[in-house]
Amino acid sequence: MSAAGFGPLVQGSTAPALLSTPGGLTADTVPGVVSAVLGALLDPLPRALLAGLPVVLAAPDYGARATAAFVNRCEEAEHEGRKLRPTEAISPEPAHLVQEFAEHSAWDGPTYVLINQRTATCQALRWARAAVATGWHRAMVVCEITHDPRHGAYLVVATLVSPGGSPVPEPPAEDPAPGSVLLRLLRGPVTGGAARGSGSAVVVSGLGLVTGYGAGVGRFWRGLVTGERALVPLTRFDPARLRSKVVGQTTVSAPPGVPRRRVLLDLALREALAGAGLSRVPERALLTAVGVVPDLAGAGAPEQVREIALEPGWCGDGVVGPGGTAAVLAHACASGTFSLAMAREWLRCGLAEIAVVTGVSSLNRYDCAAMEAVRTSSSRPARPYDLDRAGLTIGEGAGVAVLETAEHAAARGHTPAAVLGGIACRVGGAGRRRLHAEVGAQCMRAALAMAGLATVDYVHGHAPGTQQGDAAELLALETVGEQLGWDGIPLSSHKGAAGHLLHASAFPALAVAISAIRENTVPGTPGLTHALAAHRVRVLQRSERRPVHSVLVSNFGYGGSSAAMVLTAPPMSTEDSHGVA
């Protein structure tokens, strides 16, 4: 990878740590090694530098192998006629690998996990170099975990990218893992001219959505506002062994041999491009994908996993050309917001002119089995924020958001749908499956501060309908509201209407935020009967007409991933709008 175009930088890397795995990858061992490697790199740094220092983790091998192990456990349980136990259900999400370090160190920056095979480390290092060269971050960390079949081990290595003029330290003479991309890239000095970034705001220019209501943001919005519930009996596969037999299932069918996720994404992409006033994805675009994992068949999973995995050699589903970049992020149910945050930084650093952020959730028995095993599924339709809530309802669908800088949109005469005024992502808190009120509140405050706001007109909650998750999120909102002087800000959730799209859950939320601003309407919460008590926010059962200029969206995920974003109305323009239909 060429370093040309980026200013003088210095990188300091840790000594590589080999993690032997004779008994296979364990949830307890890997985070400890990652924590030790990051600690060796970051503990000597001044506390002032640690504040907000981003870490980009490249973990393609881990993402594929951990998911493949789970799929194989599902297969074994199915063959034996039993259900998975909670301890079997979920391999630690890749984000969990840094959760321990976040919990026990002075570091409190954001984490981004890239799991696309072959290119994750190159993209992480390119991002770090550009962000530091343009002054977007004072420094960034790239951490890589790769599997070395020669040693039957995992290699973990981290490097700090910061301003300076010294050459990059030479790696060890004998590279213990020839497959390590990061170690190879660290050979030689990094020099060159300054990268060109942008101070322009980032806007959402187009949005596409497919849910159980059908294709289109408009269909989803109309159903949500009227209180219609697009939850139906599961017919995609035999639900006999499942406790939850109600889902947000689409009517989309796929041709033989074509994964349904491809068809769902294509529908959403067409709507998003039309809303953005584009006939195709520009050549020099960034594509981020969530809701899928790398090639699982190659990682040892059975062949029938095509519905949840990328094909071998995936390079963006043909969406981006050879001049573009395709990346896959993994942050469980907060993946969509983490992807939007990455896209925003790439645009501000000048690494792309257009970003296309995609997410998909295609109903499959593996996700259903996991949610059942960890006791999050409900036998009845979800009831977010309700005193009688009993668990989530899995949904199906896809979302695509087109992002660009306001300057770029204006240059091509396009009026955007909304401004992405603030966004914040964190990995932290203890416990792999619990949502964390404190970390969630940190993200909400940071996103509001980035947008220059202390309050908003509406909050769209993550609210999956689980006992612990809804309570933790409401506690975070009440904490922020108390600190910032909120007084009855309306709050609602869509998951009782269309279900929980898991990794892609941010896209219906984004559609709600943009539609609320455009229509000056706050939607209710389908399924809600008896709302949880709140003081600083007001949980809505039914929709209300009211001015909406700003919306806070919260997003949580397993593995300690929390995120929040603030959407605001676009500046008034005399140009014709190509906004969300």
Describe the structure.
With 581 residues, the chain is of the alpha/beta class. The protein has helices spanning 29-42, 47-50, 60-80, 86-89, 99-104, 120-133, 181-185, 217-226, 260-275, 335-348, 365-373, 406-411, 437-451, 467-484, 495-498, 506-519, and strands at 9-13, 17-20, 55-58, 111-114, 140-148, 153-163, 202-211, 214-215, 232-233, 246-247, 285-290, 325-328, 354-361, 397-405, 418-427, 458-460, 489-492, 521-522, 537-539, 544-545, 550-557, 561-568. Strands 7, 8, 11, 12, 13, 14, 15, 16, 17, 19, 21 and 22 form a twelve-stranded mixed beta sheet that branches. Strands 1, 2, 3, 4, 5 and 6 form a six-stranded mixed beta sheet that branches. Strand 5 (140-148) and strand 6 form a beta hairpin.
Taken from the alpha-carbon principal axes, the silhouette is globular
What radius of gyration results from the CA coordinates?
22 Å
Name the helicity range.
Answer: 25-40%
- Total beta strand runs: 22
Average residue-wise pLDDT: 84
Structural class: alpha/beta
Q: Give the termini separation.
A: 41 Å
Indicate the proportion of strand residues. 15-25%
Biggest pleated-sheet summary? 12 strands, mixed
